[in-house]
Amino acid sequence: MEWLFVYDGSWWMKITDVEHLTEYHKRTDGQRYEGAIRMYKDGKRPENMSLEERIKASMEGGRDFMLMQAAIMQAQNIKGTFLDGIRAMNMEIGMKQLKDIRENGAVYINPVGGSTFSVDYVQFCRRKELIFPDFKREDIRVRRFEGGCHWYAYVGDMQVRNGTELKWNTQEAARSAAEAIVNY
C-alpha cells in the first residue's frame, strides 16, 4: 500500500478511499490511546485530582490527558466503561473521516491523528511505509544535470516543487525552496 503525504506548512496524510482509511486505523489506533489508558489505569483521573492538578495535567499531559478526559465523558454518555468510551470516540472519528471522503473526496490526517477535509498543499511525496516525512537540513540535495542550466532540489525521498515548477535558475534558489520545508 502506498501513502500520499502533502505539505502546506506542515505534513498531512491524504486519504481518498475506505481501504486506506481502514488500514490507517488498523495501524495507529492502539498507539493513539496508549498514554491515556496508562494514565487511567494509574489512577491519574480527573476525579482523583484537585482543580490545580487537573489544570497542570491538562497543560503538561497534553494529548494523553485530553484523550483520557474525552473517553471518560464518552463512557458516561453511553453508560459504558472507559474502554467503551475509547471505542465510541474511535467510531465518531472514523465516521467523520468517512464523511469527509464521501463529501469532499479526501480526508487529511496530521501526525497526531487530527483531521480536516481540505488542505491547500504545495508539496507531496508518496511512501510505501506509513511514516510521516520529517526532513532535516542534511536531507537536502541540490543537483544540476550535466550540461543543464537549471537546478533541481530534493529533500530525502521527495523532489521539491513550487506548484508545477520543479526547477530553479540558481543553486541558491533551489536550496532556499528545499530549506523552506525542512525541520531544523
Explain the overall architecture:
By secondary structure, this protein is an alpha+beta fold. The chain folds into 2 domains: 17-100, no CATH class; 135-179, no CATH class. Helices cover 45% and strands 16% of the residues. It is built from 6 helices and 8 strands, in the order ββαααααββββββα. It has helices spanning 18-32, 34-41, 51-60, 62-78, 82-104, 171-179, and strands spanning 3-7, 11-15, 107-109, 115-116, 123-127, 140-143, 152-155, 158-159. The strands form 2 sheets. It has a 5-stranded antiparallel beta sheet with strand order 4-3-2-1-5. The two termini are 30 Å apart.
Would you spell out the secondary-structure blueprint of this structure?
Blueprint: E1 3-7, E2 11-15, H1 18-32, H2 34-41, H3 51-60, H4 62-78, H5 82-104, E3 107-109, E4 115-116, E5 123-127, E6 140-143, E7 152-155, E8 158-159, H6 171-179
Antiparallel strand pairs: 1-2, 1-5, 2-3, 3-4, 6-7, 7-8
Helix pairs in contact: 1-5, 2-4, 3-4, 4-5
Characteristic key phrases:
184 residues, alpha+beta, 2 domains, five-stranded antiparallel sheet, three-stranded antiparallel sheet, 45% helix
Sheet with most strands = 5 strands, antiparallel
The overall pLDDT average reads 90
Compute the CA-based radius of gyration.
21 Å
Structural class: alpha+beta
Task: Give the CA-based shape.
Answer: elongated
Strand order of the largest sheet: 4-3-2-1-5
**Residue runs with pLDDT of under 50 for 5 or more positions:** none
Number of domains: 2
Order of helices and strands, N to C? Answer: EEHHHHHEEEEEEH
How many β-strand stretches? 8
By DSSP (H or I, 4+ residues per run), the number of helices equals 6
Strand content: 15-25%
Report the span from N to C terminus.
30 Å
Give the helix level as a range of percent. Answer: 40-55%
